[in-house]
Amino acid sequence: MDEEIYVQLSWNDPATGAAIHYHYAPPVAFGRELDQMPSRLGGRPVQRVVLHDRQISRYHALISSSGGQVILTDRSANGTGLNGETIHRTSRVLHNQDVIRLGNHRITVTLTTHNNPDATQVNVLTTATPALIEAKPQANHAGLMLLLAMVLVLAAAAMWGLVSLALNQYRPRPAGTSQVLIGGVG
Q: 30, 58, 64, 88 - which has most CB atoms within 10 Å?
C-alpha cells in the first residue's frame, strides 16, 4: 500500500511579511471566499485556505492527490502561476519545492509522507491542523494618500500666496509714482 502524501505550504504574508507554514493531506482548496470552496471532495474533507486578496478568485485552485501524485488544478478566471508559468483551467502534477502563485502570494510546496524520517520540525504532521487559514487583508491606504495629497496642495497654495504677497510688498516701484500710507500722513 502506498504511503499517503502530505503537502506543506509555506509563504510570507504579503501584508506583514510573517512566515506561514501549514501541513495538510490533500485535498486543499484556495480561494477568497470560504463558502465558494468545497468542504468535501471524493468523500474526504477539504482543507480550505482563505486568502484575502482581490486578485484571487472566490474558488481559485485545488491541490488533490491521485495515484501517488499531487495535482494542482486551476479553477480561476485569470489562471494560477506554477513555477513562473500560468496554467488556466487545467491541472499539473506538483513536485517538491514547486512555487504556486495566487495573487500576491508565492506559496512553496514541500511534499512529505507521514512517517518521513527526514521531515524537519516544520514538515512534521500535527494533529492540530487547522481547517481554515485566514490571511490578513492588505491595508488600503488610498483614502489616507488622498487626504495627504490635498493637504500638500493646500500647503503649497498657501506658501505661494505668502511668497507672492512678500515679493509684491518689496518690489521696487517705478520713479515718479507716489505711495499712499494707510493710517498715516502721505
A: 30
